[in-house]
TrEMBL record:
It comes from the Bacteria. This is Phage Tail Collar. Coiled coil: none annotated. InterPro entries: Phage_tail_collar_dom (IPR011083), Phage_tail_collar_dom_sf (IPR037053). Residues 7-63 form the Phage tail collar domain.
Amino acid sequence: MSEPFLGEVRMVAFSFAPRGWALCDGQLLPINQNQALFSLLGTVYGGDGVRTFALPDLRGRTPVHADTGHPLGQASGAETHTLVPAETPSHTHSVRAAAATAASPNPSGDLLAKPATPIYGPAKNLLNLLPGTVSMNGGQAHENMQPYLVVNFAIALSGIYPTPN
């Protein structure tokens, strides 16, 4: 690896941080032993700013480029989400049907029709549908993650001190 910038973050396809690097797992470092790195990161990612500061924690996270709406250190999003009715778009499920008696088992247009031979008994002893049979909200969380491949992120603990252009 070429000499990195101090505080540079790289992806690695192995399970450890190379010498001079640390995994981006949110660990706290002592300021007195890492003054140059602290001067770059401050307490953006955590720490008390007196004795400790934190490295970025990218476990289970996707990095996003900083801008005015997404400042450095901001964490957002969730791995799972439970929809509420207000998040479900208004919609209908229409059924196309004909009042005529069916004349073919596979009619064009695939319309439902009254069967030529009764297949149901008289309309007595009807049962109600079980609750949730046609429910639009099961109240359970679903996965909310894009496809992913897990790698490790490492941050340089030493290297060239970066300066703005």
